[in-house]
Amino acid sequence: xxxxxxxxxxxxxxxxxxxxxxxxxxxxxxxxxxxxxxxxxxxxxxxxxxxxxxxxxxxxxxxxxxxxxxxxxxxxxxxxxxxxxxxxxxxxxxxxxxxxxxxxxxxxxxxxxxxxxxxxxxxxxxxxxxxxxxxxxxxxxxxxxxxxxxxxxxxxxxxxxxxxxxxxxxxxxxxxxxxxxxxxxxxxxxxxxxxxxxxxx
Length: 201
Ligand SMILES: [Zn+2]
What we know:
The protein is built from seven helices and five strands. With 201 residues, it is of the alpha+beta class. The protein has a three-stranded antiparallel β-sheet, with helices on one face. Strands 1-2 form a two-stranded antiparallel sheet. The longest helix has 16 residues, at 108-123. It is globular. The structure holds zinc ion.
């Protein structure tokens, strides 16, 4: 199937798919207790590069909006998903895929996705929001780009998140034990129209 057809088919049909978490998984999940139920290399769909190329996924996201297809179960970099950036780790000489995102707060869906991630950081231990940039930070504007913008605690109220500028952040979890699959599942229900799917009904 050609690329264009694949993008068109996904764009037309995604809203009909009841099992959103599988549709937006990357497969290859190694997180203990993860609710994605996609441990195999051919599991998952949208973020499984076995089925879609990065360019296709970017096109799909631009058409349907990130909130419709965000993979909250693999928000951290432990399982590559959400089209994170590839980068070479200087110490190991390996290519990692880091689940970094840029969220334009002018757009309601990107703003809400960013809010979902800072909500997740509230539950999971460790320093989860790393290399944070904010285009409207006085420090950023005055002294060039910095990557240590501290998201104000007031932003934990969604109404307090500004409607201007772009936040860039990497959601990070150092060890598997800090991942709370249940919290991710709950956020999927609250923000991403996930729901329980009953097979063979
Ligand atoms: Zn998973």
